Amino acid sequence: ANAGLQRAYTNVPLKSGLTANELMHMDEEFILPLYARVPISTLLSHDGEPYLDFMSGVAVNALGHGDPEWREAVKEQVDRLTHISNYYHCEWAAPLAERLVKSTDFASKVFFCNSGCEANEAALKFARKRAVVTSGAKLDTKAGVNTNEKTEIVAFEHSFHGRSMGALSTTHKLAYRLPFQPMIPGVKFVPYNDAKAAAAAITSKTAAVIVEPVQGEGGVTPATKEFLEAVRQSCDEHDATLIFDEVQIGLARSGRLWCHEHVGVMPDILTFAKPIAAGLPMGGVLMSSKVSDTIQKGDHGTTFGGSPLVTRVATMVFDRLSDGDCLREVQRKSEKISTELTRICEPHIKSGLVKQIRGLGLLQGLELSKPVAKLITHAREESHVLFINAGDNVLRLAPALTVSDEDIDVA
What we know:
The protein is α/β, with parallel strands linked by helices. It has helices spanning 20-30, 56-59, 68-78, 93-102, 116-135, 165-169, 174-177, 195-201, 225-238, 289-292, 308-321, 324-351, 373-383, 405-410, and strands spanning 7-9, 50-53, 109-113, 139-140, 145-146, 152-156, 187-190, 206-211, 214-215, 221-222, 241-245, 269-272, 283-287, 354-360, 363-368, 385-386, 388-389, 394-397. The protein is globular and about 65 Å long. The model is unreliable at 1-7 and 40-46 (pLDDT under 50).
């Protein structure tokens, strides 16, 4: 990558000894075909052409590509110790945990895992366990009986929380859920940003409410302050656990370290992942004491979560992203992108092609009146700029948080 940490160069030699075409054929033959991959030759060609990455690995590569400090942290830790399991203390896990907990106004503990999906899965489990404890339900392990009736989960239309069974059950898009039904029972979907509908759905049987402060996959739509305040109030009234999924928008992308800081509404649980190790698989769950006090040893676990390698790198990344100068730069760059988008799109808004520009920080969405797939292909092939969609008609802009003004202008 270049010194600006943004451009993924295409003249990278294939260390495997394979050509790009051979690699594509091998991928097709042996790897489960779950992804509509871009032909890899366009990303790993040998003609030296740079590609500007304005999707940052789906909001993962917060520091761009080839960041020197990131490389050094990885190398340093790989040379020492990569994995020991959670049976032993890890040098970097506790210092990182302290940083994360103290960065919020609500958390008392953190759980480390490997992805956003795992974080949401854990959050749902923790909320269910809290409901068992606070409702006074009886557990009879010999008879296999759990008398808890506070089991329902409220989620929202256009939500995306992951693809494992619990997280998928709270993901709204039917195409994702239908092949794997039946889902986890007791999940209600209500309209996003509809305070009255949320209040009506949250009852004494609600164990958890899970919501994204900004829906990413669902169209880059921010939640309103009034909506989140109403959800918080309803959760308090019915003693339901409020989960904020900040997997994509958390950790500085919004211009604040945590997105919910913009509205001043505190969750009981917050999930995070994508940028925390800036390219290494890591996620986590921050929780208040009213949740953590109900969790006992053995209630949950992970083999790889919180390993020496990822926590070492994540500590460095967190220190970078939580720095005031970094957050101010994200805010400034966000304003620049918004201003440029508004200027460029003004005639297209009048024509009806562009319906709306929305988002927060360095997660911006451009909603068109037609699918954006051809636009994404054109940008990649003609301009060597990589974008991603957020639904059929929304172009998602999620550059690295270190994106330069020059690269913003190019995009």
